[in-house]
Every structure is written in structure tokens, then in C-alpha cells.
Amino acid sequence: MKNLSFNIIILIILTFTSFPVQSQNIEYIKVPELEKILKNPDNKLFVINFWASWCAPCIKEYPHFEKVSKEYDPAKVEFIMISLDFPSQVEKELLPFLKKNKSSLKVAVMMDVDYNSWIDKVDSSWQGDIPATLIFNNMKKMRHFRSGEIDESGLRKMINELL
Amino acid sequence: MKKFILLFSGAVLLTMGTVAKEPYKAGDYASDFNLRNVNGKMVSLTQLEDAKGFILVFTCNTCPVVKKYEQRIIDLHNQFNGRGYPVVAINSNDKEVSPGDSFEEMQKSARSKGYKFEYLYDESQDVAKEYGATNTPQVFVLSKIEGKLKIEYVGAIDNNSDNESNADKSYVKDAVNALLKGEQVPVAGTKAVGCGIKWKRT
Fold first, then answer.
1. Which residue in B has a C-alpha nearest to residue A119's C-alpha?
2. What's the pTM value of the predicted model, to 2 decimals?
3. Contacts of residue A117 in chain B, CB cutoff 8 Å?
């Protein structure tokens, strides 16, 4: 009996500790999946933020994306946070960050660190400095890219200009 | 009056020119500078007469990508200083925006890691702007040609920030080795994810 209740406790602990990570909207991507995101033909505005949990200005603006994402119809504006965390630190740094901040945003973790092979696919003006934000609607042939930190009203303005 | 307007618009154009300056790329000639090192001494590249060129690294104390690359930067100096290509590191981050990148913190970093290369403080950020540096770490390999500084390579150290042993392209090493043999640099420019330089708040 003692053994059984011990097992149940362990089971409960496991369920609750692993639950938030599993419920998070995370996928692991490489260049082909990145290209698929960038070339998405849907008539929809995509808001793509390039960030990492090690990047101070990125984690400062992360809550703005979380908040602003909830103000739009997901059928019209889709947010994807592309994490550039070091693949070796995803478990130790990124997942705990997402859990701690109760992130509900879709996160795509870029596992290809050969940056020079794909930075220009995002925007030819981008030098690789993060944070950086790309907003586009491929069907309407609209796009806007900027690197550097953005505040809440700046993000809203950037979206509304293309909506 | 006409002359004044002309002069004025000239001045405006000049200022705009400095703001919207194109970053240096391979083939350009670079300006020298005069910056303070962690020992308080002023350093210019052209003063370093024994050098055939330089591995100029825009770096800082705080960026996690720099921390990943710190040992590789030290190794580059150890490998190439004796052959005429020393590392010269520059921190251009604003200390108000990034307090960990103050001059005092630079001195601590240099001391704790025993930097044998120059670590210079670009407090005004003029050098970063002149070179068009955007990230840390970002490398400019320069060669000295008749006393002038020619840009040979701009970009990343190699193609795996996470783990050096998984990198299959060593851009900076390959560039310097080619220059030492009198050959063309194989890859003249790359881009890499890094921390944006912490510009002064305007």
C-alpha cells in the first residue's frame, strides 16, 4: 500500500511537471520548414519573431507578443516565435523559460545553426542580430522586416499597417 | 544666401551620409581608429607595425554568443599573432543600456580570462558605425597593404556557434591562412545570429 501510494505520488508529480512542456506549442525546425513558414501562401498575416531565451532584449519584448497576439483573430493573424536558442540549451534554458512565462505562443525552435545558409532567406538586409521581426502576407505581397527591440504599441502599429 | 543654403544642404547630406553608411565589405579600405585598451593605453592599428593584418572582433562581455566563442577568439590570437595577424577586440556596447559592458567590466573580463590581445573600448560607438558592425561577435579580417587597411572578410568565426567541433567551416581561419599564403580569401562574407550591438538610447 505504501508502495502504491508512493507510485501514485510519483505519477502525479510526473504528470504535472511534464504537462506544461507538452502542452506548449513547440516544434523543432530546420531550413526546409523555415522556408515553408516564410512561403506560406495563405491569405493571412504572419508575425514572425526571431529570438532566444539568452537574449535580454528578446525576453523583454516576448510578453508584448504574448499580449498582442491575443488581440487578433488567429485566423487572420498568426504569430510564430522562432527560437534561436542553442540546440544544446533547449532543455535547460528555453523550455524552462516558456514554462515560467506560461507562454501560449507557437514556438518553432530552429535547429540549424549554420546561420549563413539561411539568414538571407528571411531578409537580405538582416545581419543576424536579434531580436528581429518579420510580418508578411504573401498572398497580398506585403512584407515588413525590422531588427531591434519593439514595444507593445510599435508591434500593434506594425501589424495594423499591413492588416 | 545661396551659398549658405548650398553649404547647409551639404552639411545635411554629410550627416545623412554618416547615419546611413553602408557596412564595410571585402575589398573596401577601412579607417584606422584610436581607442583606449583595458590598460588605459591608446591603440591604433597602424601603430602596430609588426602586423601584416588584423583579426578585428566586435565583441563584449555579456553576449551569450560571445561567451560561446570566447575561447575560439583566444585561440585565434594564439594561432595567428605570431604569424602577423593578431586579434584586436573592440567593445562598442553602451554602458547605460548594458552595464555589464562598462570599461571596468572589460578590465575584469580581460584579467579573468588573461586576454593576450588588445581589448579596446569604443565608447562613442564611432568605430562600430564606421565599420557597419551590427552584432557581437562579428569579425573583420584586415590586411595591411602599403600602410592602408583592406577589408578581406566580414562575418562569423565559423558555422557552429553552439559547438566548435561541429563546425565544418572555419571562415576566419581559412581567410587568414589564405592571406598568409598570398591567396584569395575563400569566403569573403557571412552572416550569423548574434546579439545586436547595444546602441546608445537617442
1. B191
2. 0.86
3. 159
A57 neighbourhood in chain B, CB within 8 Å: 196
Q: Which residues on chain B are in Cβ contact (under 8 Å) with A131?
A: 196
List pLDDT tens digits, range B50-100.
999 999 999 999 999 999 999 999 999 999 999 999 999 999 999 999 999
CA distance B26 to B17: 20
> Residue B72 falls within a domain, yes or no?
yes
Name the domain count of chain B: 1
Mean pLDDT by 10 residues, chain A (163 residues): 55 47 77 98 97 96 98 97 96 96 96 96 96 97 95 97 94
Q: Give the residue numbers spanning the domain of B142.
A: 22-196
How many residue pairs from chains A and B have C-beta atoms closer than 8 A?
70
CATH of the domain at B34: 3.40.30.10
Q: Which residue of B has its CA nearest to A128?
A: B193
In Å, what is the CA distance from A78 to each residue of A56, A111, A158, B26? 24, 21, 14, 39
Our CA-based measurement puts residue A22 at a distance from the nearest CA of chain B, in whole angstroms, of: 25
What is the C-alpha to C-alpha distance for residues A111 and A84, in angstroms, rounded to an integer?
Answer: 8
Number of domains comprising chain A: 1
Is residue A43 within 8 Å of A139, Cβ to Cβ? Answer: yes
